[in-house]
Structure formats: C-alpha cells, structure tokens
Input
Amino acid sequence: MNLLRRRQQRTADEELALGAVHHEPESNPRKEKQQEQEQEQKLADLFNEPRGDAQKQRIKKLIDGKNNLDASTVDKTGRTLLHYAARHGDRSLVELLLQRTKTGRPELGIQDKEERTALHEAADEDHHELIELLVSSSDDVVSKRDLHGRTALHWAANNGHDLTVKALLQHMTVDQVDFLDKFNQTALHRAARSGFYDIVTMIQVKNPGDSRPDGSIMDVLGLKETSMAETKDYLRKLKSHKKWTEMSQGFVEHPNMLKPVLFWLTQNGLKHVVALMLEKLKNDGSGLHSLINSTDCLKRTPLHIASIRGHTAIVESLLSHKADTARRDFEDKTPLCLAAQYGQEDTFRCLQEKEEAQNRMQSNNLMPTPLSSAIEGEKLNIVKIMFEKLSEEAVKEVQYERHRKILTEQKYGQDEVTPLLMATQRRQRDIVDILLKNGASMDCADKNRVKPFFLAVDHGSEDVVECFLKNGAAVNSKNESGLTPLLMACQKGNMGIVKLLLGKDVNVNIARPGDSSTPLLLAVESGNKSMVRALLKKKANCNIANAESLTPLWIAARAGNYTIADLLLSHDAYVNSTNASADSTPLHVAAKAGNENIVKLFLTGRVNKEAQDTQLMTPLFHAVEKNKQAIVKLLLEEGANVNTTRRNAETPLHFCCGAKMEEEEGMIQLLLSHSAGVKNQDGNRWTPVMHAAKAGKESIINLLLEKEPDLDLNYNSNGTTPFYLAVKHNRTSVVKFLLQRGVDYRTCPRGTTIFHSSVHVESIADDEEAAVEITELLFQMDMDFDSPDIDGSTPLSIAASCGSKALTGLLLDKKAEIDKPNEEGLTPLAVAIANGKLEVAEELISKGAKIETRDEKGWTPLRYAVDRQHKDITAMLLQKGADQDSRADDESTPLGAAASHGDKKIVHSLLNNGAPSELNKPLWNALRAIGTRTSSRF
Output
C-alpha cells in the first residue's frame, strides 16, 4: 500500500512538473528567470507528449540546440529527463541522453526530491535491459539510497523483479547487498516478506552469510501472507536458514510467538511444519487446545483459515487434535461454510463427514449454512456434492424428505432468504436448476414477500427465468403488488423474458393494479416494437384501455410512433377511442402534436374527423391552435369542416385573426381558400375582422377584404365596432387604416364615446404614447371630447384617474372642462388624488383646477388625500393652501380621518399647518393612542 501511494504521488508530481531549472544558474537573475520559464514550458510540453519517435526527435533537437538542456536538467520534482526515460524503459532515449550529456556522467547519480536515481526508476519498473547501461556508466549508482534508505536492489527484490535483481547483483559487492534501510531490513528481508523465494535464493548465493534479523520472527522465516504452495524445495530453503533450527526447537519456549506462527503456517499450507508444531505441543501437553481454537481479528481459527485455502492435510491434522468445527467467524460462518464458499471440494468432504458439521447444516437460526455459503461463492461443484450426498443417504423416505426440505428451504440472513432466492438473486442458473430439481419451493418468499420466480423476472435473468419455466413455474401467478411475470417483464422492457413467457399459456390481457395497464399498453408506452408484435401475435386485445381510458393506439399517437400505430390498426384497433379527461381521440392527439404521418395513417381509416373533445374542439381546431399548417391542410383536403366551432362559437378563423402566431397569414389564407366564413359571428357576435382589429393585424384585415370585398367594417355588436376595438387597444396602424376606409367612428357601446376608449385605462397601461397619438387623430374628427360616459366621467376624468400626464395635458390644451364632476361629484382633480396620481394633480392645479370642490359626501380633494393616506399629495395640497378646517356632511374633518387611520405623519402635518383645536374627547383619545404630542391649541 505504501508503494502504491508513493507511485501515485510520483505520478501526480510528474503531472505537476511545470518547470525546469539547470543545476548551474546564471549570474543574471532576470535572464535566469526568463530561461527557467522557457525551459519550464519546453519540458512541460515534452513530458505531456506521447512517447515515440516524434518525442525523441524533439528531445534531440532541444539537447543539440542552444537551450542549455541536457540529461542533468531537472524539473520541479527534481527529476531529470533520464529519470523519465529510465522509468518508461526507453533504451534508445536513455542512450540518446547519455550521448548528449554536456557534463559527463554525474547526472546518473542525480537524485530527485525522494532521493531516487534513474537506476531506482528502472529497477522499480523492472526494466532489466537498462541496468547494464546505467550501472556501467557510474560505479557508485548502485549504492545510492532513497528517502527510505533503500537501494535499487531493495525495490527490485520487493517487487519480485528477478531479472533486474540478477542484473544488479552482478555489479554489487557483498556489503552493498547487505545494506539496511531505515526499517532495519535488507533486500533479502524485502524478498522474503513478499514471498519471492527465487530472489531469496539469488541473494543468499551472493551473500550466504546474511542472517540479520529485522526484529521480527515472522521476517526471519520469511513469513508473509502468500498463496505459494508448499513444496519440498521451499522447505529445503526454509530449513537451510540459520534461524530455522532455533525456531523449530523454540515453539514451546516462546508461547507468545506460537499463535502468529501457526496462523501463517496454516495459511501457506505448510502441512509438515504444522504437524511438527502440533506434535511438539501435544507431547509437551501445554496449551494445545486453546492454541488450535484461538482466533484472529476476524474471529477465525486456524481451521477456518485452512478451510478457506483448501489445505485438507492441515484440516485433518487440526481435526485430529480436536479443533472446533462449530466455531463461527465474524460472518457467523463455520469452517464447513468457508470451504463451501471458496469451493474447496476435498476440504468440504473432509469436514462434511464430521457429525458436528452435519448438525450445523440442519440448523434453522438464519445463520449462514454450507449451501448458502456455496451459493454466495458461486461454487456449483460444492452444491452438486451436497445433493449427491443427500441422494446417496441410505435412509428412509420420510427422513430423506426431511433432510431435503431442511437443505432447500432453511432461510438465511436478516431478509430470511432461501437458497433458491439467493441463487436467483445472483443469476446462478445451474444452481437454480439443481435446487428446483430437488424440490425447492418456488413459493417460499423472503421477509419482504419476494418469491424466486418474480425475482428472476425483475432482475432480467433470461436463463434463470427459462429454468423456472422448465420446472413448471406458474406464469399467471401474482406477486404482492398484483403483478404477473408478464406485466413485470413488459414494465421492465425485457423482450427476451416476454418471449419466454409468451411461449407458455399466459394471460396477455391481464391488467396492472392501479392504472389497469395491460402488457400491450406497457409495450406501446415503452415504444418496444418487437414486444408489441409479439403480444399482438399472441392475440393481445388492442382496444383495452387503462384507467384513464387510454388505448394502445391513443398512446402510440401521443408518442408519435408510426410503426406501432400502423401495427395496431392492422389488428383492428379502434381509431375513434377517447380518453377520460378530455374526450380526445388519437386523431386529436396526432393533429395537436403535428405528426403528419400518423394523421395520414388515421385518415386512411374510418376516423371521425369532426369528433369534439370536452372543449368542443375538433382535430382541425387543435391543429390550427398549435399552428400546424401541414396538418390543417391534410384535414381540410379530407373534408374537415373549416367552420367548426368550439365554446363561445369561435371558429378557427376567429382564433387565427385574434391570436399571435408565426406565419399567421399562411394559415389564414389556407382557411380562406377552403371557404372559411368571413362573416361568421362568435358567441359575443364578433366577426373575424373584429378580432383582427383588436389584435392590430392590418394585413389580416386586408386578406379578409380581399376574400370578401363588401365586408361591413361598420358592423357592430352592442356598439362594439372594429374601429372602437382598435382605438381601445392602441392599434394605431389599424385606426389609421380604418379611418382611410371611411368607417363610422362615432358608434360606441352605450354610454361611452370614442374618446373614452382612447383614454381607457387598458390603453394607457399598454402603450401611453400610442394612446396619445390615437387621441390626437380623434381630435381631427368632428366629435365632442367632453361628453360624460354612463358614470358621468369625462375623458379628462378617466385620463386623470389613470395618471396619464400626457393625455391630461392634451385634453386640457383642447379646452376640456377642468372641473366637470362625475355622477358622484368628483372632479378630475379629486379623481386623480383619490387614485394617488401626484403629477396629474399638480398638472391640473397648475392649469386652474379648484382645490376646494366638494363631492356628494362633502369631501374635498384634501379629504381624499388624507383618507387614502397619500402623504405626498396631502403635503402638496397643504402647501397650495387647502382648507384643513373643512368638514364633510357627517361633520368629520381631515384631521379626524388621519387620526382614525393612525397615520402619524399626516396628523403631524395637519397639526403643524393649523388644524382646529376644537376636538371631541374620542378624537383626543385617538390622537394620544398614536403618540401625537399635544400643542398649546388643545
């Protein structure tokens, strides 16, 4: 792990190598910095290039040029180009760098920030072909040590690079081979720890006297977790070690060493050594049982370890010394369970014969069993052994059945899964087959009520599902959610499983609980054409709708799936089915989506082109509303009614004339070419030209006139004319166009004039500038602009209420009556103040409006300002000399109104401007309640 981290760090350092600095800096700091930056960029580019001929040519060019760059130039990690070349094993590049070196050979000894040389890099990466080349150039490079005190030999030995070790040993003295690192270990120790015994032999041949321990008995023996099998050759090497005699005789003398030694010997399968150790302990008579059944950090005994490794001979030795076969590890697994999990056949058979193990197999406490462990490890061979053993038992039929049931149905784990569920979950087809053939129940569910067959379908395991079907699985059974296997497979979109199920006597029209979707509906919804074909071939009913009354054809139309729609129609799908929420047909959906191909497909059948949905809209109307001209053209050519109406008797032409659409002229021309009614009236008795006038569509009005030259532009509905609508909605161009056509500009709805519409609140809010322009146009007509409307309000009063200073000024310039009251007695000034329009109020006062007028309640403009709590307007009126002593018809005063509203600022303003002191007690209390200070007047 430390080696991996170090390598990862080195790789990260390489990627961060952004600059290079020469070992001999120049005297000029500025020039040196500039040169470093140049080299930094060159080396950064160079290191990021792919290795190959192009890279070598660039290196050669850099070295040969005037770049002050050679093999001794280092980057920010301290590495030279030679470090990188050696690490990548590029012999030709190494030779090139050595040939172009300007400073001789000392660069071979250059160490990076980890104090590693180029030789360390080559040895670490097993580039043995570079060792001779690098070492022959510098005799002392083999003795260079890194930050850990390790030589190149240490790293080669640690990583098992035997050819590199052999090459290094040829150039090293005995003393150099015997170097200790900072952990007091030699290269021999590193090889022994890692289990590279060929390298151990090579080093011992070089230095047969090396027996220096590193303080660990495990390292003296070369003890390290390895999978190396026991061989006579290995035993010979181990016994030749100087410490072996001492160790083999010292087991009893050093009891604290026995446990790790026994575990390591067991793990590595050293059966003779284990036997020797156990015999010594047996003869000595001390602590054998406790040692054999001792556990490691995973609660495993030596018997567990031997079972995992398949060291049957050691298992037999341990069993002969009464090792506990019932002991469970941290996963609650016995040695037999572990032998099953790791597929150790001989070991499993050995343990299986023990009575304790057999008793454990029959437990039912949700702990792991040999069968569950074999399934977990995907060990088919062990499962076969278990059922072979069961079939060979010479027992009565009743006892056999009991054993079979225990074996196949006992549950395991917190989810209480059976062996069949486990094998199904892991997609182990062969094990599932064995279990089913031995009578494993398909109805045994886990804690979550999941059954094996449904689990196989849910996981999409085709081969496992096929196995269940061959063993008689019920294809029409339902799970806890009410789903059949076919519904689940269609829901998952698994065509392979659907085919398997359709090969059986399966109900293809079963409905899913909740939304009543059938398998065909699910297949259509997922767009799976092959699945739809397969279901239709199996006689699936294509007209069964779901809970929302959606049929497969309706869903296909919504998805725009032509192929599936065609398939369904070829199987007599009902083309005029409607959904529950909107009564729309598949043609409605296709027309609305603009799917031309599907619309064409539907039109070839007996489709109802005039079907209306809940909004009374036909497919044509939907296509017009969504601006699908191609669909509109198709439907009209097939005879769709161009004058169809929806709610409020609106036709497609009405809609187009009033709506904002792209390329609307093309749509209207299309409708007109199919005899759309230009004079048709909607529910408000409006004609299409009225909608066009309201929307400001001058070009559309022209189109309508071209179609119907004698079109009555003066037609009115309760006084509402096209001209009135254009004025009210600020359609300047239409107003000018209609005036040029000589329309009647006087007709208006009852109780209003055209001037009222031009200064209407909507007009001003929409575009005040346009409203002013239209009003100026109207002034050119011979009309009374001071007439009141049905409420007695004049255009000036309306303009004032809207706060339009421009319109107010325009009307005043035309000599509109400035103080003309409405039916409630409010003058334009009072109206402006009541609506909080300060600028308009100031404009009216500046033009001579009276500030002491009274309405029918006796309220003055000041009273309105106080009542509506317009502080700025109140201050302005007081400044203009408004009478704060005025009383309304109910004897209330502005000060009283301000106090009742709790408005401190207005109260202070009135008091400071001389409000009367003759106040009644309730008013006094109100003033005190809002914290107003009394003055000497009270």
